[in-house]
Write a structure and sequence with these properties.
The structure holds two protein chains of two kinds. Chain A is mainly alpha-helical. Chain A has three helices and no strands. Chain A is 78% helix and 0% strand. Chain B is an alpha/beta fold. In chain B, 47% of the residues lie in helices and 22% in strands. In chain B, the strands form three sheets. Chain B has a five-stranded mixed β-barrel with strand order 1-2-3-5-4. A five-stranded parallel beta sheet of chain B has the order 7-6-8-9-10. In chain B, a hairpin with a 6-residue loop joins β2 and β3 (57-65). In chain B, 25% of the residues are buried. The chains are: A mainly alpha, B alpha/beta. Chain A binds chain B through residues 6-7, 10, 13-14, 16-17, 20-21, 25, 27, 30, 34, 37-38, 41, 44-45, 47-52, 55-56, 58-59, 62, and chain B through 148-149, 151-152, 175-177, 179-181, 206, 209, 279, 282-283, 285-286, 289-290, 292-293, 296-297, 300-301, 303-304.
Chain lengths: 63, 408
């Protein structure tokens, strides 16, 4: 599976937040969505501050 | 010939003639073609004037700024224009026309009006801006969306430049992940334009690897920045397919490169700060969304709990009312039972009475009252004459007494 991009992760996070704001709580569904949202926040945070080895390698190998 | 002049005499005459013609200083506009300072601090220049729209020279004269005049004059020039005096600049200079018998004609510059140079630049810039506008490219880079995470950075700068070091230090100080690739170029003075254009080509060849292009310049003393006002370079920057960030380190007004870049800041350090700030904003956004998530969840859970409690209360209330109804039903059944029992008893009593009466009507006493009598003989009921013979004693019971008789 292709790694999720920052923008995709942010978009998905947004849509979960709007779902939470707009819907009557379905607790089972909520649990799933919140779990996913926490994952997405974690992915995004890592992208901000942790070096992606694959990208670093591309930059090092450049001419 | 007797009246022939010696060269010295001729030159003295020229000198005297010139002094008569230019008794005072005058202002002259010209372009600097050469500009060199020697060890003693004097500045020697070649001033030129070109034919209109051409590089062909129309006039050329040597000039000098003596060391004692150079210091205040160049300081003021640099303060106002942001660059030192240099080749290619158009200046308006106050000059003494000097002629020396040995060294010939030279203009002694006593003052320079920097606003003329500024005006000339502004005109040139405006012209290039107009040109880029007419091409329809001037806002192309500015209209690109600045990426949320400007992490993969192509830098065009000079490797040795202090500005590049400042940029890298600042970038590494914030703890965000950045990937920087330097595309070295000469970024000031001669050859800068071609050098930067070729670096742009090298970045353009691998656009997919980069989020943004950063163009930064040395820093330190102000130098000739005219390349950042060049049409070819600014046109290429304006049309560059990824957002360009400039930090050219000049104090005064914007160059055309700054005008066309997606984002323009003053220094390389500020450029690095801008990149870090972009990341900080995302970091804050993430933080606030984590808070929002928590709030939403606890709000929904609370709403759920309240819902549950309400349901429990409703359940309690409805079960109580069901019990009450059942009790009432039971009560009314009880009452009905009691009254119906009473009624049934009364009816039974009544029927009993009637039966008693009926039974009573068959009793011997009743028959006697009606006028019938009962006859017995020797204790037996006499029902037929055949039961009797003469001499038998009869006992006859009537309503009000008994008669004894004998059959004869």
């Amino acid at each position: 599976m292709k790694e999720i991009t920052y923008k995709e992760a942010m978009d998905e996070l947004q849509s979960i937040l709007s779902w939470l704001d707009s819907t009557q709580p379905d607790v089972d569904e909520m649990e799933k969505k919140v779990k996913r949202a926490v994952e997405l926040i974690d992915v995004c945070r890592k992208k901000l501050s942790r070096t992606d080895e694959a990208v670093r390698k591309i930059f090092e190998e450049m001419d | 010939m007797e009246n022939a002049l010696s060269l010295y005499e001729l030159n003295r005459l020229i000198k005297a003639g010139l002094q008569d013609a230019f008794p005072e200083t005058c202002w002259v506009s010209a372009e600097i073609a050469e500009c060199k300072r020697n060890y003693s601090g004097h500045c020697y220049l070649d001033l030129i004037e070109k034919k209109e729209n051409s590089d062909q020279l129309k006039a050329k004269t040597r000039a000098v700024i003596w060391a004692d005049a150079y210091f205040p004059l160049s300081l003021r020039f640099e303060e106002m224009t942001g660059t030192p005096l240099g080749v290619g600049q158009k200046i308006l200079a106050q000059v003494e026309v000097n002629y020396h018998e040995l060294f010939g004609l030279s203009l002694n510059i006593v003052d320079i009006d920097p606003s003329y140079t500024l005006g000339d630049w502004m005109l040139r810039r405006q012209e290039i801006v107009r040109h880029l506008e007419a091409d329809g490219v001037i806002d192309m880079n500015r209209e690109l969306e600045w990426p949320a995470l400007p992490q993969r950075i192509a830098v065009i700068s000079s490797e040795q430049a202090a500005g590049y070091g400042d940029f890298m230090n600042q970038l590494e100080s914030n703890g965000f992940a950045f990937y920087v690739k330097l595309f070295p170029a000469v970024v000031q003075g001669n050859g800068a334009e071609e050098s930067i254009l070729s670096a742009l080509d090298r970045v353009a060849a691998r656009l997919d690897d980069f989020d943004v292009l950063v163009l930064i310049r040395g820093g330190g003393a102000a130098t000739d920045l005219s390349c950042f006002d060049s049409y070819a370079l600014c046109s290429a920057l304006a049309q560059f397919p990824i957002p360009v960030l400039t930090g050219l380190g000049h104090q005064r007004d914007q160059s055309v490169a700054d005008r066309v870049a997606c984002v323009s800041v003053k220094t390389p350090t500020a450029a690095a700060e801008f990149l870090s700030d972009s990341m900080s904003r995302q970091s804050e956004l993430l933080g606030s969304q984590a808070v929002r998530l928590k709030e939403s969840v606890s709000r929904l859970l609370m709403a759920g709990a309240a819902n549950l409690e309400q349901s429990a209360r409703r359940l309690d209330i409805s079960s109580r009312s069901i019990l009450q109804r059942a009790e009432m039903q039971l009560e009314s059944l009880h009452i009905r039972l009691k009254s119906q029992t009473k009624q049934s008893l009364a009816a039974a009593c009544h029927r009993l009475e009637l039966t008693a009466k009926e039974i009573d009507s068959y009793s011997p006493r009743k028959q006697l009252e009606r006028g019938f009598s009962i006859t017995t003989s020797a204790g037996r009921l006499v029902k037929s004459v055949s039961d009797l013979k003469a001499g038998d004693e009869l006992e006859t019971r009537l309503k009000d007494g008994t008669v004894k008789s004998t059959i004869i």
